[in-house]
Design goal:
Two copies of one chain form a homodimer. In chain A, 38% of the residues lie in helices and 20% in strands. In chain A, strand 1 and strand 2 form a beta hairpin. Chain A contains ten helices and twelve strands. Chain A has two domains: 135 residues, 2-Layer Sandwich (Nucleotidyltransferase, domain 5); 173 residues, ATPase, nucleotide binding domain (Nucleotidyltransferase, domain 5). The longest helix of chain A has 24 residues. Chain A is globular, with a radius of gyration of 20 Å. Chains A and B meet through strand 9 and helix 8 of A and strand 9 and helix 8 of B.
Chain lengths: 326, 326
């Protein structure tokens, strides 16, 4: 029987889990509500329940699971296996998730940042499976980052590496939730893209999105994309402004990590070519000719919502392979 | 007898060389003119001459040199050992420096980017000798970068990693020599700092530096520092503007590589506390409180002009240790 790994992807709304074999093949998967309002004990119990469900679905006993990987939103302490203060899990404070899950199943368990595991999934069996190295952006409420270099994560000395969303791109730009000004995240994430549209309308810009707001509709990056495709000029300007910043973020990673690929993931990436087209256009326009052909290609993530649990399972396999877990 | 390595630091003006033992102790060193106007054959012959001189000075035959390291200005192809098109060595085009030196001495030879070797020198026996990881900025004509992570260089898939000077920090900022806008280098390097001062005076700003220009004196970052220390307001504003951008560059590396240290090297770093003080002040002001104590400390480089040949020798030792050279 092939060696299997369990992956658990902890999100603010849903917990996803799956059993993945050593080649990255998904044997079973599930998604249940996080019930974050119940607090850490409820959520950890539900994480264990989800993992048990996928073992049962795949007809695999825990003896045949080699290790468990957990992907979780930051901030977290990978070495200690502790979730520190995640913004989308209110009330959590220094929760030792890894050890709680490890004890429950009596299986080696590793805890990783959710953007890192998404990067690992794409590197393992997704858009980057042929690539030497990649940098992944999760373009959602915030902008997370994952870096795979020489077959490993960049975690940093203080366990806070690959936080690409907090690279400052415009020092006089918008205040970010982290306290800095002009972070990549505060210029181009899905939620800040929506804020840019709302503020432009509040400042008097005309747009078909005004009617949506007037009837109580929420302005999201999906709405902006829809209205752009229907011909709204403001929606186009705002969407393209975010694409321009995503191109600049990609140029910066080209110069710093110089990976083979930049992978766009997360909510905004579901726009597909409507995202990739303008991002590549700005990327080609804004990058320095002096560096010739040394720029990575930009591609879309391939694994969608499954990247979290697949990458978590893959991170568990990686930790075993590197001797970090036994 | 201890194992020794020869380091050669190729600069546009001078070639420095030294013999360094396996513990990083400098046994001999020299500096001669590059004579870049003579073209690649003359320069390579002078590099060999400098290496021979330091072997003779240290009374070490080439049989007792384990390997040779060469640090050179970019752009270069590390894997192929070729210097491509260095801006400060006019007329050079795809010169196979590594193989030429390797054949001359019949010793294993490695070619590395000059900022990488400076970073390695500081990591090996300098400001970062106790550190887990570091990012080094060479603040000179341009801004070079070197990254040491997990005891190795970050070179990138296209051999163009750690080019931190071309990270875009202000997309509407000044045009950089590389063709991009608002590169870190175009905002804060020594030569661009001087240009900022000159342009401000040409736009009408009052400054004691005007008198220096009027008598034909060149405005350099050293002059700006001197005039700032004598109380000139424009000099202070321009110097502090560069320090602010250096702080932003450091914040960005804190979020991406999250090293233990950021090391400031190159011409501007000779300003010592006059550089470090304001950079640290802006670093503390501009960084995000959300990331707590995960920011690296910023320090000055310790090895000065010797970092190049020491790091080149160290890179040769590293390549031997990693089995990349034999």
């Amino acid at each position: 029987m092939t060696t299997c790994f369990a992956g658990i992807d902890l999100g603010g709304t849903n917990i996803k889990a799956g059993i993945v074999d050593e080649n990255g093949k998904v044997l079973s998967k599930t998604s249940i509500r996080t019930e974050a309002e119940g607090g850490p004990d409820v959520v950890i119990s539900r994480m264990c329940q989800a993992a048990q469900t996928v073992m049962d679905m795949a007809k695999i006993s825990r003896d045949h699971v080699r290790a468990i990987g957990v992907g979780a939103p930051g901030s977290l302490d990978h070495k200690a296996g502790i979730i520190l203060e995640p913004p989308n899990l209110p009330g959590w404070h220094n929760v030792p998730v890894r050890d709680r899950i490890q004890s429950h199943f009596n299986l080696p368990t590793t805890l990783e940042n959710d953007a890192n595991v998404a990067a690992w999934a794409e590197f393992w069996i997704g858009a980057g499976q042929e690539a030497d190295s990649l940098v992944l952006f999760t373009l959602g409420t915030g902008i997370g980052g994952g870096i795979v270099c020489e077959g490993k994560f960049i975690r940093g000395f203080f366990d806070n590496g690959a936080e690409i969303g907090h690279m400052i791109i415009d020092p006089d730009g918008r205040q970010c939730g982290c306290g800095q000004r002009g972070c990549f995240e505060a210029l181009a994430s899905a939620s800040y893209t929506a804020r840019n549209a709302i503020e432009a309308m509040e400042a008097g810009a005309e747009s078909s999105m005004k009617a949506i707001r007037n009837r109580g509709g929420e302005i999201t990056s999906e709405v902006i994309l829809d209205e752009m495709l229907k011909g709204d000029k403001l929606a186009r300007d705002i969407w393209h402004q975010s694409c321009r910043y995503i191109a600049i973020g990609s140029i910066n990673m080209a110069h710093i990590m110089n990976p083979e690929l930049v992978v766009l993931a997360g909510g905004m990436s579901y726009a597909g070519e409507h995202l990739l087209g303008p991002v590549r256009q700005y990327y080609n326009e804004l990058r320095g000719p002096a560096f010739g052909e040394t720029y990575p290609q930009i591609v879309l993530a391939a694994l969608g919502n499954d990247a979290g649990f697949i990458g978590a399972a893959g991170a568990a396999k990686l930790a075993i392979d590197l001797g970090e877990l036994s």
